[in-house]
């Protein structure tokens, strides 16, 4: 009887902890959302500039000289059709990472309000989840703009199927989580530029956004498949153009595991952060 009681109370305690964690996460997210909601159009439009340039330069410009099927596996009517899912992955990565990083850096280095957040009686894991959730929303705002462009160009309604949207959310979670960690680690905005130059920009071109990884030599494939953007790009491309039987299902658990690992790392950083 005693063991049964302790088990029941233990389950209730765990459930109560989960409720508190969720409430704290939404509290942190709500603070960022109050700023985001007045800039929805600005965030969506600003994040659309880079993908549009790539679409015009590579999809419509260079793409017209690439024969369908040359260097890429699968049946595509044009190179533009091939690269559009990669542009969705690219935009969600860039905005989720940059928006989250600069938001935290602004609070830490300029407004000096970040110390107040650290002093609040909120679970460090909830702090990370709240900031990461705000980054996911930023990424989704821009992704929706790119998806709208893709729908206008291709008339392919698979760009809004549940599997496609799930991969976008996971991709945003991975890079928003990375953005939180970078935002907590850097000491100046110049340092953010270094992360952007040595991590984000190379990944933008090597993360299977413009090419099919299966066409690369094996050694290069090993490098490309170390990048989380590769799984997002190939997953989105398959969700938009291939039947479910050809979908790379491994991309979902890999992105999920990366997001969870970054979440625990971010929670640890918040617990030991000193500003």
Automatic annotation (TrEMBL):
Transmembrane segments: 43-62, 82-105, 132-153, 159-182, 194-211, 247-267
Keyword match Thylakoid: no
Matches recorded under PROSITE patterns: ABC_TM2 (PS51012)
Pfam families (UniProt xref): ABC2_membrane
Residue ranges of coiled coil: none
Residue ranges annotated for the ABC transmembrane type-2 domain, each copy included: 42-273
Listed name of the protein: Transport permease protein
UniProt keyword Transport present: yes
Its membrane topology: Multi-pass membrane protein
Subcellular location: Cell membrane; Membrane
Keyword line: Cell membrane, Membrane, Transmembrane, Transmembrane helix, Transport
Family named by the database record: Belongs to the ABC-2 integral membrane protein family.
């Amino acid at each position: 009887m005693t063991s049964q009681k302790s088990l029941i109370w233990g389950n209730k305690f765990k459930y109560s902890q989960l409720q508190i964690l969720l409430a704290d996460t939404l509290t942190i997210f709500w603070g960022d959302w109050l700023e985001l909601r007045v800039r929805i159009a600005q965030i969506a439009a600003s994040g659309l500039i880079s993908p549009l340039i790539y679409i015009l330069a590579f999809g419509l410009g260079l793409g017209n000289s690439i024969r369908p099927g040359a260097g890429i596996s699968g049946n595509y009517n044009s190179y533009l059709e091939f690269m559009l899912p990669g542009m969705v992955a690219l935009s969600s990565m860039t905005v989720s990472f940059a928006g989250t990083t600069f938001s935290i850096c602004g609070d830490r280095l300029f407004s000096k309000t970040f110390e107040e957040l650290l002093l609040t009686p909120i679970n460090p894991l909830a702090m990370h989840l709240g900031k990461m959730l705000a980054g996911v929303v930023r990424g989704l705002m821009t992704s929706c703009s790119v998806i709208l462009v893709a729908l206008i160009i291709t008339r392919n309604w698979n760009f809004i199927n549940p599997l496609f949207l799930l991969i976008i959310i996971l991709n945003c979670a991975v890079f928003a989580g990375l953005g939180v960690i970078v935002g907590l680690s850097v000491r100046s905005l110049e340092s953010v530029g270094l992360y952007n130059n040595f991590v984000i920009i190379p990944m933008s071109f090597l993360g299977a956004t413009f090419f099919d990884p299966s066409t690369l030599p094996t050694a290069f494939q090993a490098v490309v498949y170390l990048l989380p953007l590769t799984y997002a790009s190939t997953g989105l491309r398959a969700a938009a153009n291939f039947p479910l039987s050809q979908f790379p299902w491994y991309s979902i658990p890999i992105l999920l595991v990366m997001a969870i690992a970054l979440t625990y790392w971010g929670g640890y950083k918040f617990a030991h952060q000193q500003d």
